[in-house]
Specification:
The structure holds 2 protein chains of 2 kinds. Chain A has no helices and 12 strands. In chain A, the strands form 3 sheets. In chain A, strands 2, 5, 6, 10, 11 and 12 form a 6-stranded mixed beta sheet that branches. Chain A has a 4-stranded antiparallel beta sheet with strand order 3-9-8-7, with no helix packed on it. In chain A, strands 1-4 form a two-stranded antiparallel ribbon. Chain A is mainly β. Chain B has no helices and 11 strands. Chain B is mainly β. Chains A and B meet through strand 5, strand 6 and strand 10 of A and strand 4, strand 5, strand 9 and strand 10 of B.
């Protein structure tokens, strides 16, 4: 069965610092991988997705993620944090060709001035 | 613009009462999903439907029921059998793509509180 592990329920950074949110996946077949962002009392918004094309995926709001098969990782990064990046971030996985996503438990990003 | 509409945004339920959460999409998506979100637990799948008039239980279906009579609509009923219904409920939909996965589109959620 597929699963994702997000290391760190909370990550704190200063404005302008590097953002790194970790996601490791477990899948018996080549996976599709996704990062979503959730602002308070709202639904989830797709940031980016990996679908077996380029291993470095660029998303919205300056975020990007790199698929590393050898490390079974799909970490999310942003070079310079902005106050508006404060939100909860979810990593999700599904096997190729199957629609149902499995979500991680989320990481709350806190950005301080 | 196409999207998913969940209503109401806030809902209060009395003990022993059934309540229904609405989810409507105009994206022409085949599949629809209901998730429950609790602090620190991420998203847990309640029910999902890949086609009209068919649906499957997710990981925490007990105390919930759904119907899928129309492609656009996937209402969730929280029954009195659900002992701890206070949570944030999210509806999502996806294209039933063959051999690929475009991800989900989410609604803005319904916050249910037992009073």
């Amino acid at each position: 069965a597929q699963s994702v592990t997000q290391l760190g329920s909370h990550v704190s950074v200063s404005e302008g610092a590097l953002v790194l949110l970790r996601c490791n996946y477990s899948s018996s077949v080549p996976p599709y991988l996704f990062w979503y962002v959730q602002y308070p009392n709202q639904g989830l918004q797709l940031l980016l997705k990996y679908t077996s094309a380029a291993t470095l995926v660029k998303g919205i709001n300056g975020f990007e993620a790199e698929f590393k098969k050898s490390e079974t990782s799909f970490h999310l990064t942003k070079p310079s944090a902005h106050m508006s990046d404060a939100a909860e971030y979810f990593c999700a996985v599904s096997p190729t060709g199957f629609q149902k996503l499995v979500f991680g438990t989320g990481t709350r990003l806190l950005v301080s001035p | 613009d196409g999207g998913i509409t969940q209503s109401p945004k806030y809902l209060f339920r009395k003990e022993g009462q059934n309540v229904t959460l609405s989810c409507e999409q105009n994206l022409n998506h085949d599949a629809m999903y209901w998730y429950r979100q609790d602090p620190g637990q991420g998203l847990r799948l309640i029910y999902y439907s890949q086609i009209v008039n068919d649906f499957q239980k997710g990981d925490i279906a007990e105390g919930y029921s759904v119907s899928r009579e129309k492609k656009e609509s996937f209402p969730l009923t929280v029954t009195s059998a659900q002992k701890n219904p206070t949570a944030f409920y999210l509806c999502a939909s996806s294209i039933d793509g063959q051999g690929t996965n475009y991800g989900y589109t989410f609604g803005s959620g319904t916050r249910l509180t037992v009073v």
